[in-house]
Amino acid sequence: MPRPRVLFLSFTCTFIAAVIGLGLSRGTSDAATPTNAQVLTYHNDVARTGQNLEEKLLTPASVSSGKFGKIGFYRTDGLVDAEPLYVSNLMLDGRRHNVVFVATEHDSVYAFDADSLETLWQTTVLPPNEAPSDSRNCAQVSPEMGITATPVIALNGDQGLLYLVAMSKDGLGNYFQRLHVLDISNGAEISGSPVAMEAEFPNLQGATVFDPKQYKDRAALLLQGGIIYTTWASHCDEGPYTGWVIGYDAKTLQQANVLDVTPNGTDGAIWMSGSGPAADAQGNIYLLDGNGTFDNALDSSGFPIHGDFGNAFLKLSIGNGKLIVADYFNAHSTQNDSSRDADLGSGGTILLPDLKDGSGNMVQLALGAGKTNTVYVVNRNALGKFNAKNDRALHQKLEHVLEGPVFSTPAYFNNTVYFAAVNDALKAFSITDAKLDPEPVSLTATRFAYPGATPSISANGNSDAIVWVVEARGSDAGVLHAYDAGDLTHELYSSGKTNGRDAFSDNKFITPMIANGRVFVGTLTGVAVFGVLK
User: Fold this and answer.
1) What is the average pLDDT across 501-508?
2) Domain 13-532 has CATH 2.140.10.10
3) DSSP code per residue over 191-231
4) Entry pTM
5) What does the domain layout of the chain look like in residue ranges?
6) In angstroms, rounded to a whole number, what is the distance separating the alpha carbons of residues 525 and 180?
7) Cα separation values, 243 from 46, 216, 389, 495, Å
8) What is the 3-state secondary structure (H, E, C) of 53-106?
9) Mean pLDDT value across residues 66-72
10) Which of the ends of the chain has fewer CB neighbours closer than 10 A, N or C?
11) What confidence score (pLDDT) does residue 106 get?
């Protein structure tokens, strides 16, 4: 396909500061279909809860009526691995639109009208004489790699910027990772974009150097405190690689901070099956990293002596102007788990709202699970560090509550956490006294094959809550399910029960996005759109 033509505009720092300064604000409401719905980051918010609490059109009654199904399809030029994003009531070409933004592995970005399904603009972020990266002999993202991580949008009314990372390759065999920033009104790159991603981090031998060909940006981008955070995974565990977090100033695009969580070791990549690092109101960042070096020799503060945090639940913060590991948790079995590739980093983490424990104390929690079928719940103010004998410092450890490994992100709604592990049902766990009840309050009849499923939730406040998940059925067949959030035995809808009417191709690690009466599902060739049938 020829390179689409876009108008390249020069934006002033004043404009960028206005967009970033107000962060993730809402647009105005004079569109033909008024809505306050915004999905500007992975899984709806920086806590990664997966909740859209402003869904007024999709209710259990409307979804189970028999009049819900696939209403359209956004055709794209490549795989859609990133979760689509949504901006309501956006002014484009003198008209207001509800807009869905879609990024592809062919290094393209699209803006689609969510109501009419028309293409509003399309742009490529490929420089001249470059193509998307090949698969790097790894089937995880194939046949090409371009934009894999879910982008993030900074919005201020009708002004907005979309941040993304794209991988490409030139004719000489050189690989590139670049941070791009697009004006959401027309797809044009802002002044100063893109920025080639390069980094070094000190270690005992001098420095470790970020090599763009050895990494893919799989985990979703995070916009936190005016910084765009990117995190980096390997290609099929092909070394050498370590665990990088690289941040860029959202206004200037200058590199703001760099952290290697395994600088004197190996591995420890950050991918979380496409989930993104989470962040709290204090600006701390939480993530899970994969199997890798962990120094079980600790300093007087209980931290690894060489700064290697492989296979860990990490809390990052800014200390003395630098991004640092502020706290961590490693299971007592961490080295054995890493050696057998049973790492924590295959799953995503979510932050829970402040809760009171059985003694009436307020606690702040995060949780996640990986390949060991165990759910780890950490106190965000004291994660637990490492004890070679046991995990008693952990807030809560739930073993055997999941029947398979986790390659997905849980969701939270109304004092309940939802998990869908591999070869397991979607399960709802209630929270009592700031701990997850070990027995699910409900679960689905359907069991989800690899890679399990990442649930998303739509609700109107605390009412009409629906849990949405995509099931992989093999041979590239996908099924969208909708369940009553209060009773998972009650299936409201399944695209697999419509005699092929609502069929779509499945793609790995897909998170459904719900906004303003529509459900958007990434596929191998575009985005399937579901809603109430006319």
Assistant:
1) 94
2) yes
3) TT--EE---EEEETTEEEE--GGG-B--SPPEEETTEEEEE
4) 0.94
5) 13-532
6) 23
7) 21, 11, 26, 39
8) CECCCCCHHHHCCCCEEEEEEEECCCCCCCCCEEEEEEEECCEEEEEEEEECCC
9) 97
10) C
11) 98
